[in-house]
Design goal:
This protein is mostly helical and about 375 residues long. It has 18 helices and no strands. It binds magnesium ion.
């Protein structure tokens, strides 16, 4: 890894793991975190969980797995330019969506509704729950026993009530402090990745068109640039040339603005970062471009009637699975039945949240299909 700035997260200054382990040989603590994440079951499930489109609708749409890899790529590039810890930012990026339910945001909304009286459901908090508790791979502890800094980065937001229950990682929400620069960066790399790939997937699906996108300033600007340079370019290549330039604009702006803010604030170390303002940021101009793009995507893609139909079906599947299990916990697989004896709603939420899109659909059929032959 390249040289670290004084304000970067360092292994030596880590607040450590929940259960003591001797330092790894031949790799850093944050590399070990990344390796544990890549080998986890929850990570493999990301392949069959979706963002906007349901997994079986097309082989080329993003899944949470390819999304997480794109976030890691963007975050690492910026981290290297700002002399931040690439290993840490990669761990956070690869783990940030581990707690996602099947069927993207509609799945999460439905599960949150089901859990309203039982402490709620929040995918961010669930990602932490996966790495702290739900993964069962090690003899000495539940979860992956990751470093504080990785866990801090996974927990992007959190209510005050939940923060109080979380111990060390919850503290910053109560004290109104910032996380590491690596955590701040992974968060914005996530935004760059999904805004741009949703444009790509939206076009691929035919739900939005190139003409629709002319009303989005950041798209129009780069499309015109590509057309000037390659007047005959058509279709996919035209789209890709435009989107890659958009990503580049966002990444370059994020790097420049963050460098400027870090220079101005000049934090001596990670503790100064935690006590200061947010330092990883887009410039105001690019923030406006980004907001216009998000507004467009919300109105034209996420609220598109065909996406809404899928979302509606997804919500019904999640809701009905949840109520069937709550009514009759004997329908759960044995390990979840044991946990349901202590706290049935939470055990069911963990089970449902862990499902991939296709597993949820299969499970729905297995439980509700009238064919009893
Ligand atoms: Mg994400």
């Amino acid at each position: 890894m390249s040289e670290l700035a004084p304000y970067a997260a360092r292994t030596q200054a880590s607040r450590g793991r929940r259960f003591f382990e001797p330092p790894p040989e031949g790799r850093s603590e944050f590399q070990r975190d990344r390796d544990r994440i890549v080998h986890s079951t929850a990570f493999r499930r990301l392949e069959y969980k979706t963002q906007v489109f349901v997994n079986h609708e097309g082989d080329l749409f993003r899944t949470r797995l390819t999304h997480s890899i794109e976030v890691a790529q963007i975050a690492r590039s910026v981290a290297r330019n700002l002399m931040l810890n690439e290993d840490l930012v990669e761990s956070i990026a690869l783990a940030h969506d581990l707690g996602h339910t099947p069927f993207g945001h509609s799945g999460q909304d439905a599960l949150n509704d089901c859990m309203r009286e039982y402490g709620g459901f929040e995918h961010n908090l669930q990602s932490l729950r996966v790495v702290d508790l739900l993964e069962q791979r090690y003899g000495a502890f539940d979860g992956l026993n990751l470093c504080f800094e990785t866990r801090e980065g996974i927990l992007k937001h959190c209510s005050q009530a939940n923060a109080k229950k979380l111990g060390d990682v919850g503290e910053r929400f109560l004290l109104k402090k910032q996380p590491s620069l690596e955590a701040q960066l992974a968060n914005l790399a996530d935004e760059i990745a999904y805004n741009n790939h949703d444009v790509d997937d939206g076009l691929r699906s035919g739900l939005i068109t190139l003409e629709d996108l002319l009303e989005v300033p950041v798209f129009l600007r780069h499309l015109e640039e590509v057309r000037r340079e390659f007047p005959d370019l058509q279709d996919r290549r035209l789209t890709h040339e435009t989107i890659r330039r958009m990503i580049n604009t966002f990444v370059t702006d994020l790097t420049g603005e963050s460098r400027r803010r870090i220079g101005e604030y000049a934090p001596d170390d990670i503790e100064a970062v935690r006590a200061g303002p947010m330092l990883i940021s887009f410039s105001d101009d690019v923030k406006r471009l980004q907001q216009a793009l998000q507004t467009f995507l919300r109105a034209r893609l996420y609220k598109h009637y065909r996406v809404q139909r899928m979302a509606n079906k997804a919500k019904r599947i999640v809701r009905e699975l949840f109520s069937a299990f709550l009514e009759e916990p004997q329908l759960l697989p044995p390990e979840y039945q044991t946990r349901a004896k202590l706290d049935a709603p939470r055990a069911i939420a963990d089970y449902v949240a862990g499902m991939t899109d296709r597993y949820a659909i299969k499970e729905y059929r297995r439980i509700f299909a009238v064919d009893i032959s």
